[in-house]
């Protein structure tokens, strides 16, 4: 089965990786090489891994909502696109897909830089790092990207380089249910795949708001698990974007993606 036929598997199976990591409270799944839990700005990528990522991804800025941002992604011109997924030598490459919730968040930040300008931003479940990159481009004073996959962290560094940015700090561990950080804004996209994970996110985000008055923006294209969760009744729709045709095809016909604010009374809608 070709890799592009496995995109549905990744789309549905992503919940297992995040949910399993959240339930274990131990962060990233184990890999056959050393994992770094926190990378400071300026961290370099292992030369062998850099070569692998550069050889097996394509630089692209088309077919999504943010043509201003260049990313290394898996595309039909990549050799693993046409190979069986189990031939990919590392964990499932969720970071190599620009998911629609992340696209909407990144587009919104680029269009409304005052949302992040001069503020500290946590990009939770950052993946390819596009939303963190958008925050840096828009003047955020501090950005921390978070993911549970060490290779996602390496891909983020390469994507920063593509966009002529110094790499931002990256933490590679599960931080849901951890001590609340002093963030002005938390952004997260495409994270509501599993009811138990969604419950954990809801509890932790609510705690961040209560203790630190953190603002929270959520990007999601309207997946069933998200729409039926009780957090949905506490959200305010900020903006909805029509997805490009290629993104629709890659996401089972989803036609739009929405940015939601967890704090309905705030004024994040525009600048």
TrEMBL record:
Catalytic activity: L-lysyl-[protein] + 3 S-adenosyl-L-methionine = N(6),N(6),N(6)-trimethyl-L-lysyl-[protein] + 3 S-adenosyl-L-homocysteine + 3 H(+)
Entry's Gene Ontology molecular function annotations: protein-lysine N-methyltransferase activity
A Pfam cross-reference name: PrmA
Domain of life: Eukaryota
Keyword Mitochondrion in record: yes
Keywords: Cytoplasm, Methyltransferase, Mitochondrion, Transferase, Transit peptide
Keyword Cytoplasm annotated: yes
GO cellular component, one term: mitochondrial matrix
Main location: cytoplasm
Subcellular locations according to the entry: Cytoplasm; Mitochondrion matrix
A single BP term in Gene Ontology: negative regulation of fatty acid beta-oxidation using acyl-CoA dehydrogenase
CDD domains referenced in this protein's UniProt entry, alphabetically: AdoMet_MTases (cd02440)
Similarity comment: family membership: Belongs to the methyltransferase superfamily. ETFBKMT family.
Name of the molecule in the record: Electron transfer flavoprotein beta subunit lysine methyltransferase
Phylogenetic placement of the source organism: Eukaryota, Metazoa, Chordata, Craniata, Vertebrata
